[in-house]
């Protein structure tokens, strides 16, 4: 048997020579990613024997320690298992068969080609070298330091071009930012205008704060400007809520001309716009935000929870002008005195030293691969955009969204029914599937295959027990 045959096995096995892709991170990480990808695609199956480490190192042109480190990481992820003198084999699925697979929580996936542990360790080391530890562990004024706001201005530059740090507030997450703006811009009992399918956190905050959400007609381009004007007149609404880029849950991205028309309609009504834009940086072709067309009318929220990590608990509000800062800060301090100084300092360090950009690039790469996986395995997402961390899956007529959600739970899968997002009597017959919460891409593939099998089965009618 030749050397290559001893490494690749037969012609149906994976092509190990395709393991390395320029710019995709450390080589040991690429080997792990290749194994995971091969398992997900079926070119490696449970029980398949992997090449000896020395042979693989020779074939790939790397040193033995690189392959050893890759195999160690792959074992940690339960992708492979060692069987002593017999060698190393692809492992059978273990935990996922017994635990619920969560496809309901919208979180970014693990970044491709980035060692998150190393990034976190290096970032915290730099923070502790540059900052006073006592200040990181005590009360601080809300809104962020000068350095935090400068970092926020850097982060928002791709979306809004020129941003003054004096117009920025650092917040402990987008939900806190949203609640603070509702308190600032509305009075109890007032209406907030939104699309029929909208982020559940808006409704939750409005209900807790004694406001009401009224929905207006939307089409394939998003909220309709004439419907917005009519709702403002009818309900006296002074605030409009928008999530215009890779909208949650529909994945719709509002085109530039509709954003401009919505901005003009809000200006005509004298209404403020809260533009909640967590996914803009995940869309390589996103139009300019609504804030670009009406900077003096829009409160723009950008959170890092959906494009970097929810554990950072950091979001930025870009204010229409610096004069509105005092009111928003006062509202924010009424329930969240400050952002966590340590995590905010880490975000600031990462933005300034480029780590945040590398992390974002890795997440975009992984999100793209997961969207493609969903497109291959779930037929109804063929026309979905290639970016984002969730898909909106319309169901066949024999399934209702609630019935499918319950049936999926019985199969140890958790998805989100359309009624979680919809205000009205008859929600669309669809579910949202989040792609980032499953750590390993191979496990995500297995979960999506199981969901696809469930979707083609007709629901079983309950049978009475006869004794």
From TrEMBL:
InterPro entries for this protein: Aminotransferase_I/II_large, HTH_trans_reg/aminotransferase, PyrdxlP-dep_Trfase, PyrdxlP-dep_Trfase_major, Tscrpt_reg_HTH_GntR, WH-like_DNA-bd_sf, WH_DNA-bd_sf
- Which Pfam families does the record match to this protein? Aminotran_1_2 (PF00155), GntR (PF00392)
Molecular function terms, GO-annotated: transaminase activity
Q: Where is the HTH gntR-type domain?
A: 25-93
Q: Which keywords does the record carry?
A: Aminotransferase, DNA-binding, Pyridoxal phosphate, Transcription, Transcription regulation, Transferase
User: Record's superkingdom?
Assistant: Bacteria
Q: Does the keyword Glycoprotein apply?
A: no
Q: Does the keyword Transcription regulation apply?
A: yes
* PROSITE patterns, per database record: HTH_GNTR
Q: Which family does it belong to?
A: In the C-terminal section; belongs to the class-I pyridoxal-phosphate-dependent aminotransferase family.
Name of this chain's protein = PLP-dependent aminotransferase family protein
Q: Which organism is it from?
A: Cupriavidus basilensis
